[in-house]
Every structure is written in C-alpha cells, then in structure tokens.
Write a structure and sequence with these properties.
383 residues, mainly alpha, globular
Length: 383
Amino acid sequence: MPGSTAALTRLRVAITALFAVDGFVFAGWVVRIPDIKHQTHASVGALGLALLGVSAGAVITMTLTGRLCRRYGSHPVTLVCATLLALSVALPPLTHSVAALGAVLLVFGAAYGGLNVAFNSAAVDLIAALGRPIMPSFHASFSLGGMIGAGLGGLVAGSLSPTRHLLALTVIGLLVTAATAPTLLRYDTPVPRAERHTDAAPRRLDTRTRRMVIVFGLIALCTAYGEGAMADWGALHLRQDLDASPGLAAAGYTCFALAMTVGRASGTRLLERLGRSRTVVFGGGTAAAGMLLGSLAPWTWATLLGFAITGLGLANLFPVAVERAGALAGPSGVATASTFGYGGMLLGPPAIGFIADWTSLSTALTSVAVLAGIATLIGATSK
C-alpha cells in the first residue's frame, strides 16, 4: 500500500492515462460511425438499435464489475477491462450488417462499461487518500483524450479506412495499458483498511444513503444521455442536416470534447468555490441552453458553438455524481451511479433514432436539453 506522496502521484498519473486512452479510443470509434452506417446500409432507426449494443453491454457488466472490484481490487480489474476495450474497438469495421454490428458493439460496450466502473472506483479511493475533490481532473483527461481522438479521426477520415484507423486505436490502447500496469499492480488501494470495500458482498446501506446514491445516479443518467447523444448523433446531424463535410462533422464532437476538457480542468476549483449542488444547477442550465442552440440552429457555426456550450455545461455533472456515490457506498455506489448513467445512454440512441424517424434528427436532439433541465432541478432540490 503506498504511503508516500510520490506513490500517490504515480497512481494518479497511471489512472489519468487510462481515463485519457478511454476517451481517445471511444472518440476514435465515434467519428467513424457515419462510415460504419454506410458500410452496413443502416437506416437512422436501425443504426440507433445497433448503437444500443454499446450501452446495453455497459449496463450489463457494471454491477458485475463493482463486485469484481470489491473482491479483487479495482486496479487489476481496470487493467483487464482496458485490454478488452482496446481489442474490441477493432471489431465494428469487420461487420457488414446491422445485426453483426450490434453484436460486436455489445462486446465493446461491456468492456467500456467495466472499465468506467473500475477506474472510477480506483479514482474514488485515491481521492479519499488525497483529501481533495479532484474527480473532475480525471474526467478532464477523458475529455482531452476524446478531443484528440476526434480531431485525429477527422483528419484521417478521408484518407484512412475505418479498419486501419480502429486497428491503430487497438495498438495505442494496448501500449498505454501495458505502460500503466506495473504501477497499478504494484500499489494497493490507498485508503485506510476501515474504508475499503473488498468483500464479495456490498455493505448494508441505510435508507438515506441509498436514496442519495439514487439521486446521484439520476444526475448521471441525465448527463450520460447528453454525452451519448453528442457522441452518437452529433456528427451525423452536421453531415445530414447541415450538409457539413466529413472533417467538419467530426469537428462537432471535437468542440464538445474541448469544452468538456476546459470545464473539467477547472472543475476542482469550481467545486471548492460553489459546492456540488450549485455546480450541478449551473452546469445543467448551461447545457440545456447550449443544446437548444446546437440542435435547432440552421447554421453550422452556431451548431458548433451550441455543442461547445453543451460540453461546458455537462462537464462536471457526471464526475460529481460518480464521486459522491462512490464516497457513500464504495464500488457498489460507483456501479449504481454508472448503471443509471449508462441507462441514459441505453435509452438515448434508440430514442433519438426513433424520434428522428418520426420528426427530424434536430428535433430529436432537443431531448438532451430536456434531460439537462431535469438534472438542474434534481441538483436544486437535493442539497
């Protein structure tokens, strides 16, 4: 168990690197969704069902991952999930039907969901050891990785096939995982023994604690719905509704990820100054306004601005929700909040796809503003 500042710093760097590569790999997949849609000849609604596989796989494995973290520790589980994520991202370009795409995205989602529970659990324990609300900094690295992954994806979209692009992501993911493995395997969870949750069964929680975990889970749900919508549908909205080029369409998610990175990089100071409730209220209101602009504006520049405002607003909602749920209930709290969150992603892709079939994609994306508004109300009433 690490007791020195240097050891805690090494752990923070290793966990930060895994957050970053998670965002990088996921964004690299996201910017190739239009190409995969064309390859599989999927309609908007059918693509929504296939994308359901990512969220479904995540939700299915989250509770199991929480139990594995309690039994084996969050560090080994993190490394296993990171390896599986890197390997599975290469699978979508190998499919040529919606059914096959949905199946491989189920595997990809399982690895993605497991990794998110595992490294968030590791981050919660490290935060307890450091005594500062630094969870936004970890998620800032995820957003930075997403921004870089989306930016590079946009640059290579016209010259590199999806197969080669995503295979390169596999190699990068495996290299980063191998580089962080010695640190994560060497050091145990840096919290006092009395605060650990390594038993196979979750500790019994009182009614108020369970209620608060659910409240944070609902905030995570509203936030993840918005993040998933931006990832899955943002580029397609720009290309299909505004006739943007492939590179400019990829820039939509880049703007969103950059804004989230900026918001999360300043998140620790924001939390220390405003507190968690005010941070949620401010962020939810900002995201709702930004998404209304991004989904309804008829100009590409205004849509990109709206996406950026949305990212700035959503930036710290999910980190706050997961960190507080984990502080209250350990890995089971992280798993619960994450399950709620990815439940939002589970509902988001098909809901937006079906609404788009009935009305339009731009109208369907306004549902993100509605959910952000709900997160604002929850934050305002859960002080």
